[in-house]
Design goal:
This protein has about 325 residues and is mainly alpha-helical. It has helices at about 5-15, 25-35, 40-45, 70-75, 90-100, 100-115, 125-140, 145-150, 180, 195-200, 205-210, 215-220, 265-275, 295-300, 315-320; strands spanning about 160-165, 220-225, 235, 245, 255, 300-305, 310-315.
Length: about 325
């Protein structure tokens, strides 16, 4: 039975339950009034959803009473609406639906603002400014957020810095500022800003850095700018990539990265492991003609790190770096 057919089948139930003049004592009377059997009723209810749902057994007169626990209700002494949590996804959706409840109204309001703006009289800059002003003036905030903003308190705080590392095959890049692009030749390909992976591959050619993986580099070192570069405790990167310094305040940074499924996307899954935990100078060294994929290179290849006497399996190197 399709969901629409189930709705049509159950419509008499809905009309009876919403009729204040109807007097129904039990389920059997309700079924008889709607000319339906209990089996047909259960089949129609099951057809309305594809997920698991718990239906509470109750009298017809109590159909509009929220789920409650008598002991908790006595202690709480307020309205209660308890729902069973059958899976993690249902729990997340239940909480987020309450957290983001005002956002749906805000979305409808912003759509109205955009429709009222005339494209002939408004520039793109003015349209964005109008949307921002409408959002800032009509957004609902909690009492806690209002106090935090009024008193200039921190909305969040962390004792350790968090660094995100892009490890996919098609990472997001930001272009150089327009003033920098205007000074470059028209056929120049050097139009992208450098990130941590590029600076890692330009690390100093010392034994300490040669055996260092990208994860350790990003966690233990930071990029320095301006007057900070005058300190003697800095390390200069190759190819004029700037300078770095070992983190001295607090603990090493927390690294975050995109996660891929080993079964659905094995190439990106093993590519992430190699880029994070195998010391390298270029991404082309993370797979070879003999091992053309990241998965084959990870499982079957062996490499010799600079300064090392023995050849070591890639799997052993990655596993050892992953444990630090």
């Amino acid at each position: 039975m399709t969901p629409q057919a189930a709705k049509n089948k159950l419509r008499p139930f809905w009309n009876l339950l919403n009729n204040p003049t109807s007097q129904l004592d039990d389920m059997s009377q309700l079924l008889a009034t709607c000319n339906m059997t209990l089996k047909e009723y259960n089949l129609s209810v099951k057809s309305l959803t594809s997920s698991s749902v718990i239906l509470m057994k109750r009298d017809v007169k109590d159909c509009w009473v929220n789920n409650y626990n008598p002991h908790l209700l006595t202690a709480w002494n307020a309205n209660m609406d308890i729902q069973y949590i059958l899976d993690e996804y249902g729990c997340i959706m239940y909480m987020l639906s309450y957290i983001s409840k005002p956002e749906s109204e805000m979305s409808d309001y912003l759509k109205t603002i955009v429709k009222e703006m005339s494209p002939e009289n408004e520039t793109e800059r003015e349209e964005i400014k109008g949307v921002l002003q409408a959002y800032s003036k009509h957004r609902e905030v909690s009492a806690q957020e209002s106090v935090a903003r009024t008193c200039s308190l921190k909305m969040k705080s962390c004792s350790r810095e968090v660094v995100f590392l892009q490890t996919g095959d098609n990472p997001l890049k930001m272009s150089l500022p327009l003033r920098a692009l205007q000074n470059k030749p028209a056929d120049s390909e050097n139009v992208w800003m450098t990130g941590i992976p590029e600076k890692y591959r330009a690390r100093p050619q010392t034994l300490e850095f040669e055996h260092m993986c990208l994860a350790e580099f990003a966690s233990h070192y930071r990029i320095v700018y301006g007057k900070e570069t005058e300190d003697c405790k800095r390390f200069r990167l190759l190819n004029n990539m700037g300078m770095i310094q070992k983190r001295t305040r607090g603990k090493p940074a927390i690294i975050r990265y995109a996660r891929f499924s080993e079964k659905k996307d094995p190439e990106n899954f093993y590519g992430r492991l190699l880029k994070l935990y195998l010391p390298h100078r270029s991404e082309s060294s993370l797979k070879t003609e003999m091992f053309p994929t990241h998965q084959e290179f990870y499982k079957d290849a062996c490499v010799r790190l600079p300064g090392a006497q023995e050849i070591c399996a890639v799997t052993a190197i990655v596993t050892g770096c992953d444990d630090w």
